[in-house]
Amino acid sequence: MHTHFVASTSTLDIAYLEWNRGATRSAVLLHGWPDSPEGWRPVAAQLAAAGWHVLAPALRGFAPTRFRDAATPRSGQLSALGRDLLEFIDVLGLAQPVLVGHDWGARAASNACGLRAGAASHLVMLSVGYGTNSAQQTISLQQARNYWYHWYLATARGEQALRHEREAFTRLMWDTWSPSGWYAPEDFDAALQAFQGEDWADVVLHSYRHRWGFEAGDPACAADESRLDPAPVLAVPTLVLHGAADGCNHPDSSLGREPFFDGRYERRVLEGVGHFPQREAAQQVGDAILRFCSEP
């Protein structure tokens, strides 16, 4: 059974779900956009049943995580997500946890590993190819089409839709990024609660605008930004799981990333699975994590 807790870092009160506290091996499961820690329930239960201590935090901007100071910039830049994760690990005293991230969470987890060698024992990235954070990256026309919402959010019209139609806007992503009928209405409703945070829209807008160079970053993140661009080579054993039917990040976007990894690297494409593998194929994802992390 999970329990809800809060970990206070230098900038955030990070809300998180927890399973099997006291177990020796730990895993931090990081959600993406638009999603919440609720999406990790089945995978977390599987890892906890295997004897792991599992934690699933809500990222900055996602309720009930809160900024501690009104003066802190509501940055959504990806280096900040990585730094948040490192502080979360430190505050809770986690020793080299397995880091499992989906979408934004995958970017946060890989950035944490890029900022601190030895931050994790293993890295598992869902639905994201490493080295795809830079504004200068080359993307295909198909991927540019998939990212229509990135360009829309760079406009005043997109900002209004995000702020005032957040339920319809986020539901559109769930309805178009995976094969139809993959989720129950109550699953979306549970995730939607995380999008009601007072800073959610600000963080989301800044994240996508900063990613493509449309807005400046938080000066406090400048040193971390310079360390992450270009993307550093990672030594941590890494597994990439990508749905073959992902309508957001085309599975080809995670191809050919082997040169970024010094250690063991595996990539698996999940047939019939869309953008949310941990929700659509939880057993398969849990099995893959346990298998991969059974080796050093």
From TrEMBL:
Xref: Pfam families: Abhydrolase_1
Domain AB hydrolase-1: 28-278
Keyword Phosphoprotein: no
The keyword Hydrolase is assigned to this record: yes
Molecular function GO labels: hydrolase activity
SUPFAM superfamilies with a match to the protein in the record: alpha/beta-Hydrolases
InterPro entries in UniProt: AB_hydrolase_1, AB_hydrolase_fold, Epox_hydrolase-like
Keywords of the record: Hydrolase
PANTHER family in the record: EPOXIDE HYDROLASE (PTHR43329)
Protein name, entry field: Pimeloyl-ACP methyl ester carboxylesterase
Organism expressing this protein natively: Rubrivivax gelatinosus
